[in-house]
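Weekly puzzle thread! Below is a chain. First person to post its structure in token form gets bragging rights.
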Amino acid sequence: MLTEKKIATITKAGRYTDEQTLHLFVKAGPRGIKRSWVQRIMVYGIRREIGLGPWPVVTLEEARLAAYENRRTVRQGGDPTIKKQPTTPTLEAAAHQYYREHKPTWKQGRAADQWLDVLERYVLPKCGKVPVDKLTRDHLLLALKPIWLSVPEASRKAKGKTKAILDWCMGHGYVASNVAVQIDGALAKKPKGSNMRAVPFKAMRDVWNAIHHATTTKAARLCTLFLILTATRAQEARLAEWSEIDFDSKTWTLPAQRTKMGKAFRVPLSDAALWILKAAQVLGDSRWVFPSPLGGELGDATLRKVMVDAGIHKLGSLHGFRSTFRTWGQETKASDHETLEMCLAHETGNGVAKRYARGDLLDRRQPVMQKWGEYVTGGRPRILPD
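Winning reply:
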């Protein structure tokens, strides 16, 4: 006998029998493990196979009930294959099945692990129990309208993910159209650029000092200073591991799965950035450079709290520090356009130029990052208070 818990742990391809005529078929493919229900039953003296749908869209209990109904139809002289219709999932069930099928194809990390979070917080509580073929524009507007302007980034992601799920439902024949693309006119236009504010580069020394005296953990403050000095993204800095740091060559190598370009990228480390890393060595025995109090990875909200505690959250965002660096580089003529773009791991040029530009300009980027570190710190990094 199968159980929901046991099914979730099955990864070996094969057929697993539940009771009498009900079987779970497990297949392993490039997109991960797929599990589906099949009933083998004699109909008019001929062995037939009836698909009952994929697990977990069709739960074990639902598959057993469907198999029982088919057996009863046969006992009454009927043919269950004639009346069988695909089971229509709820939006919640479709979301979880979409996630299971697509997660193996995504870059692994916190973003992939938490892909469902924004839906579970804002959309599914409002309309998750609605069968997707009964879902209307009004259902989605009920979930999205109250947060559309007050939580712009989360609501945008929620809408986009709902659209992707309903596209998947269309492909499986559950719905004829995607209602998520029909609600744009009912949603107010969002102001542009409000979530990427950048601190003026002339204020960076004051920002540096303010972060020093924030009340958050030392790891969070060091991580925030490190992402400023390296002009990297918050997630890249939060997930930095000691195995990626080379003190001899003064580089930090980001693996391909953690970069937006999808390929490994070397970050030159200035004297100030190396000072941050040496200060982080006393934080504990963890694979992470900037561990949480429990030894795991820092959360994104923790870095945002640093900005609030330092009193600089209204000046700019974490991501905005990359723009601050870019503006500083351009206005002070710290280097040429190509080098500054490469400092931000931005690819430049057309397709042909990219194929010929094999190098990462590390030798040109290193002095730029050294100048940036000296500018931000005033050339005098100091020990953070605990």
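Puzzle host: Confirmed. Bonus trivia for everyone else. The first strand starts at residue 14 and ends at 17.
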